[in-house]
């Protein structure tokens, strides 16, 4: 056996942790990473859905029930991932939801649910994963939105959460780059997912597809170490004319 072959055999398996991964973008990203040779943990609030998603991916993927609003549960999930796979290389912060209403009608409970999931949940996820990422460097992706720079009527909670996530992501990039950790915020426009109760189907062909974001993720991982695309805006190339 050559020295190169010995080094490959002894190299630790790369692994990824993806939140909100039972369907949509999170599932597509987890599936693509598994196909690229990463050991993957998928998380979701719904145990039956995330376990089914992991079985569909196969290749040793793990499905773990976890609510990103719970820092303790997140830490347990990340620790279990590291114990299973020996480390962590990619963190894809995807879990999110939307509640849309005129600010007059938006309830405090709806506001808290969105901010706690989309913004605080992202912070908790990164905090749980940082010790493992720092041990051997890695990559953090945050799934934001064009709504993080373009406010719209009825979007008080959602816009605020994504504006905040963009700010958090930029600070993470600045704080962590000297630790060998890259941070990229991905900001899609319309994506054909189950977001906000939508069922993807006919009529969604013009939208960004979840697998497009997954391909983008793999492309970013393949970038040279010296180069960091810190913010990526993604739009449908030809949306319907209004």
From TrEMBL:
> What Gene3D superfamilies does the record tag this protein with?
NAD(P)-binding Rossmann-like Domain
Provide the leader sequence positions: none
Q: Do you know which Pfam families this protein is assigned to?
A: adh_short
Domain Ketoreductase residue range list: 14-194
Q: Please, which domain of life does this record's source organism belong to? A: Bacteria
Q: Which UniProt keywords apply?
A: Oxidoreductase
User: Does the keyword field hold DNA repair?
Assistant: no
**Does the keyword section mention Ligase?**
no
PROSITE patterns, from UniProt?
ADH_SHORT
Family recorded in the similarity comment: Belongs to the short-chain dehydrogenases/reductases (SDR) family.
Entry-linked PANTHER family: DEHYDROGENASE/REDUCTASE SDR FAMILY MEMBER 7B, DEHYDROGENASE_REDUCTASE SDR FAMILY MEMBER 7B
State the protein's name. Answer: NAD(P)-dependent dehydrogenase (Short-subunit alcohol dehydrogenase family)
Q: Which organism is it from?
A: Deinococcus metallilatus
């Amino acid at each position: 056996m050559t020295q190169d072959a010995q080094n490959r055999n002894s190299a630790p398996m790369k692994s990824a942790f993806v939140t909100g991964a039972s369907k949509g973008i999170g599932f597509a990203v987890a599936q693509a990473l598994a196909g690229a040779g990463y050991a993957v943990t998928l998380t979701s609030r719904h145990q039956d859905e995330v376990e089914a998603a992991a079985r569909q991916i196969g290749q040793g993927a793990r499905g773990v029930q976890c609510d990103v609003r719970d820092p303790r549960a997140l830490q347990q999930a990340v620790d279990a991932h590291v114990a299973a796979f020996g480390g962590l290389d990619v963190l894809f912060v995807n879990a999110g939801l939307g509640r849309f209403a005129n600010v007059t009608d938006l309830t405090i409970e709806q506001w808290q649910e969105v901010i706690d999931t989309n913004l605080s949940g992202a912070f908790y996820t990164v905090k749980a994963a940082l010790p493992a990422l720092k041990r051997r460097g890695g990559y953090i992706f945050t799934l934001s939105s064009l709504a993080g720079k373009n406010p719209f009527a009825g979007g008080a909670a959602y816009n605020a959460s994504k504006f905040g996530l963009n700010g958090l992501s930029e600070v993470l990039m600045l704080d962590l780059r000297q630790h060998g950790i890259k941070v990229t915020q991905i900001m899609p426009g319309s994506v054909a997912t189950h977001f906000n109760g939508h069922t993807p189907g006919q009529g969604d062909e013009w939208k960004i597809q979840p697998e497009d974001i997954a391909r983008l993720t793999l492309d970013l991982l393949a970038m040279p170490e010296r180069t960091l695309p810190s913010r990526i805006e993604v739009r449908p190339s030809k949306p319907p004319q209004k």
